[in-house]
Amino acid sequence: MPPSTTQPSTRPAPNGRTDVVESRLAGPVRVVGAGLLGTSVALGLRSRGIDVILADASPTHVAIAIDLGAGRSELPGDAPELIVVAVPPDVTARVIADELAAFPDAIVTDVASVKAGILADLVAAGADVGRYIGSHPLAGRERGGPLAARADLFVGRPWVVAAHDDISYRRASAIDDLILDLGATLVEMTPDAHDRGVALISHVPQVIASLMARRFIDAPNAALGLAGQGVRDVTRIAASDPDLWVQILGANAASVRDILVAYRDDLDRFIDALADPAAPGARRRVAEELSGGNTGVERLPGKHGTDKRFTTVTVMVDDRPGQLARLLAEIGEIGVNLEDLRLEHSPGRQVGLAEIQVLPEAADRLTNELAERGWRIAG
Fold first, then answer.
1. Is 196 left (phi over 0), alpha (psi -120 to 50) or beta?
2. Residues 123-146: what's their mean pLDDT?
3. CATH topology of domain 305-378
4. Distance CA 324, CA 90 (A)
């Protein structure tokens, strides 16, 4: 989809100067829903000097977002170029229909995590879907509300545009411009392909993480005291908002159910193999299932979307101010590029384990030079 002509805008820089920032959108842009995503969209657009109109069922959310610098209240006569609907999934279609009717010259998009059902509801309601195209930024935080919003929330993140046959490329270009102005990576998919994709990479993992974490409710404290980074990784997203996920899973139920049924079959095979580990073929079956997991993980894109694999160097870091910063500075002095970092705390000890990911050919040199500088290497 071709971007429209870029528009120069200005914004005050921290030093008081006025910097010229190129923006593709001309504005104004109306954002309906001043929660995490809506306020983050608004903050990102305001940082580029674009006029943002804020609306929300909660006057408090609007007031907070305005205080954060995310935009202004709506005024009579406002004529937005683009409308971004960022409301809960169970009311998204209704709000989109209302916005299409209220602003007959505007293009409308939404940021809900399910797309096909919303489009179908709009068609059934007779809405002008020639001015609507759904989109979905794959970005978020564990906290919600306007106070959790960030202007850079979408930078480098995929943002799906769910194209359909009733809207022209020319009209949809405003949504492309929105995505590019916010620093996200535009991905084009059909609504059905999008919903199947997010079922696999987002919705089913949420269900599995939540069910796994539920096992901890009645677990002995002694067992929970053994928890390391692995179990925290598996269950991190279990802290997400249940009310929101009930809506998301209900809207994408068919795709999620299909994957969960297949996953149940995988579990049944594993359970059968563990029923008698000494039975002929049982260990081979377990090994094949685990090996399949290795193969699946290798298909996930890594840094910069590549499939490069990294080696982990684990360094013990004392839990004192400045120690992690010193470690990172010394890695830079050694001349090794840090590809990724994960920090785990050692239970009962005032020490953390910094898992440094580097290219395999740099691992030995980094290990040796850090040891020479007095760092303790684990493992």
1. alpha
2. 91
3. Alpha-Beta Plaits (3.30.70)
4. 44
- Tell me whether residue 296 is exposed, middle or buried, using C-beta atoms within 10 angstroms of its C-beta: 0 to 12, 13 to 18, 19 or more: exposed
CB 317 within 8 A of CB 327: yes
What is residue 238's DSSP assignment? G
The model's confidence at residue 2, banded by pLDDT at 50, 70 and 90, is: very low
User: Domain spans of the chain?
Assistant: 23-189, 196-298, 305-378
Element (H, E) at 344: strand 340-345
Q: Is 293 helix (H, G, I), strand (E, B) or coil?
A: helix
Residue 285 three-state SS: helix
Between residues 369 and 14, the one the model is more confident about: 369
Query: Model-level pTM?
Result: 0.76
The helix/strand/coil state of 72 is strand
- The predicted-structure confidence for 269-288, as pLDDT tens digits, reads as follows 999 999 999 999 999 999 99
Q: Which residues pair with 188 in a beta bridge?
A: 161
Do the domains 196-298 and 305-378 sit in the same CATH topology, yes or no? no
Q: What's the chain's length in residues?
A: 379
Q: Which residues does residue 340 pair with via DSSP β-bridges, in sequence order?
A: 357
Cβ distance 25 to 15 under 8 Å? no
Compute the distance between CA of residue 5 and CA of residue 210 in angstroms, rounded to an integer: 46
CA 81-86-89 angle, 5° bins: 135
Whether the pLDDT of residue 18 is over 50: the answer is: no
Superfamily of chain region 23-189: NAD(P)-binding Rossmann-like Domain (3.40.50.720)
Rounded CA gap, 59 and 65, in Å? 10
Look at the block and give the residue holding tokens 């493992």.
379
Please name the fold of domain 196-298: 6-phosphogluconate dehydrogenase C-terminal fold (1.10.3660)
pLDDT higher than 90, residue 259: yes
Q: Encode pLDDT of 209-228 as tens digits.
A: 999 999 999 999 999 988 88
Helical H runs in the chain? 36-46, 59-67, 92-102, 116-124, 169-181, 191-198, 204-214, 221-224, 229-235, 242-251, 253-275, 282-298, 323-334, 360-372
As to burial, measured by CB atoms within 10 angstroms (0-12 exposed, 13-18 middle, 19+ buried), residue 127 is buried
Q: What is the pLDDT of residue 169?
A: 62
User: From its phi and psi, is residue 33 left (phi > 0), alpha (psi between -120 and 50) or beta?
Assistant: left
